[in-house]
Amino acid sequence: METPFPPFEPNGPDDSARGPRLREIPLRLVFPNLITILAICAGLTGIRLAFENRYELAVSMVLLAAFLDGIDGRVARLMKATSKFGAQMDSLADIVNFGVAPALVVYVFALDQARSLGWIAALIYAIAAGLRLARFNVMAERENKASWQSEYFVGVPAPAGAMLVLLPVYLGFLGLATDRTFAYLSSIYTVLIAFLLISRLPVWSGKAEGNRLRRDLVLPMMLGVVLYVALLMSYTWEVMVFTVAAYLISLPFGARKWRRKYGTLTIEEPGIGDDDIGRHI
């Protein structure tokens, strides 16, 4: 049997016949996507831990997922590694970590005692989180953005919604009886948070470029952050309840500031128009 030899090519090898080569991707482009994947893993693990009745670990994983999901975009911009693929991955992670995971953890911990009403409340929250994220993506894709978008959110942002909706779990960890009455009240609260997500309430974002801190307040602010973190590590659930209460109390003040500046109670500019919906279906 004759051994086959490659054909003689007088002009060198013909690379066009070998098919496309795999393009090498810089590692800095992959790193933000790894953070997003870790966030999805944390959110899904939180769901599993909730079904195993390991609630404190479940909530910790959901909060970790929210933290990771909140920094992946900033890491990508810092490393100049933004991409369309990363944006799509981030959107998928958002609906898992800010919508599905918190809803299921709250349902397993408290809402299931309200039977179908508890499940309906969990569904409403998860769907509201998805609608909130879709509206955010549509507004972010617009070429001409309103000046107020750098200062205000339209409705409560999804990461904050995930933190807020877990309030019944925090209270349960502090010893509050999780009976049927608690389940019904938690269901009403869950629907309320869902409404805040899809509302047109102006929520101050703190991202305005004009916001500056006086030099004499820098050190006190840094000490305040250190104190908050230290208390969070020592009195986790008490601090989380305080954080939720402080955030909810701050919402009317943000709306009041908006009214003084723009004269309305809600953001009247449409977030999603007919063209936006048609283009994304």
From TrEMBL:
In Pfam terms, one family for this protein is CDP-OH_P_tran_2
* The entry's keywords: Lipid biosynthesis, Lipid metabolism, Membrane, Phospholipid biosynthesis, Phospholipid metabolism, Transferase, Transmembrane, Transmembrane helix
Per the UniProt record, which EC number(s) apply here?
2.7.8.8
Q: Which GO terms describe its molecular function?
A: CDP-diacylglycerol-serine O-phosphatidyltransferase activity
What's the catalysed reaction? a CDP-1,2-diacyl-sn-glycerol + L-serine = a 1,2-diacyl-sn-glycero-3-phospho-L-serine + CMP + H(+)
Bilayer-crossing regions = 29-51, 57-79, 91-110, 116-134, 154-176, 182-205, 217-233
Membrane as a keyword of this entry, yes or no, is: yes
Q: What is any one GO biological process for this UniProt entry?
A: phospholipid biosynthetic process
Q: Where located?
A: Endomembrane system
By its UniProt entry, which InterPro entries does this protein fall under?
A: CDP-alcohol_PTase-I (IPR050324), CDP-diaglyc--ser_O-PTrfase (IPR004533), CDP-OH_P_trans (IPR000462), CDP-OH_P_trans_C (IPR012616), CDP-OH_PTrfase_TM_dom (IPR043130), CDP_ALCOHOL_P_TRANSF_CS (IPR048254)
Domain annotation CDP-alcohol phosphatidyltransferase C-terminal: ranges: 217-252
Specify the superkingdom: Bacteria
Q: Supply one GO CC term from the record.
A: membrane
How does the record classify its membrane topology? Multi-pass membrane protein
Say which family it is in.
Belongs to the CDP-alcohol phosphatidyltransferase class-I family.
Q: Which NCBIfam families match?
A: pssA
Quote the protein name from its UniProt record.
Answer: CDP-diacylglycerol--serine O-phosphatidyltransferase
Q: Which organism is it from?
A: Rhizobium laguerreae
